[in-house]
Amino acid sequence: MISKEVVLDIETSNTFQEIGAYDHSKLIISVVGVYFYEQDEFRAYEVEELKELWPRLEKASRIIGYNSKGFDMPVMNNYYPGDLLTIPQLDLLEQIHKTLGFRIKLDDVAHACLGSGKSGHGLQAVEWWRQGEKQKVKDYCLDDVRVTKAVYEYGLKYQALAYEDHGGTRKSIPVNFANHAPRAPLNMTMPF
Asked: What is the pTM of this model?
């Protein structure tokens, strides 16, 4: 059976520091990067293309991200005509936090699991977007999607992730990423 899971990450063109509050409704999406397992396809969407993304997400069996419930989904819900959190989610950071009781950066988990990490950080993407370097932002966002996908697949395979503690000791993080909840697709953006 072909997976209908989707791995997702977003970049914004502004930051919480700039808006002076921790308010997701004031963040502006620059790019949404997505990997569709069903088509084995990576794609970056700009805001004006999100109408093409919504039906594809509605058909997903699960959306996978890193801090997606705490960041990506609340920001994306400002653009979506429903609630993306009604689609089954696997937030890798949420699973790590449940196990360890604290949060770890994706880059740190990727280095411990994969031997390499992210290609930059989100503040760089904000600057690139402002400088008109849209392709750099798209490439960076899709690189984050690739890293998230690789960490997810590592966790599926080994039922554990890893990180290095402050002393440099590699520590295991037990995880269970199995998808046990098949669901019918939504039709929020389908014409009637």
From this structure: 0.89
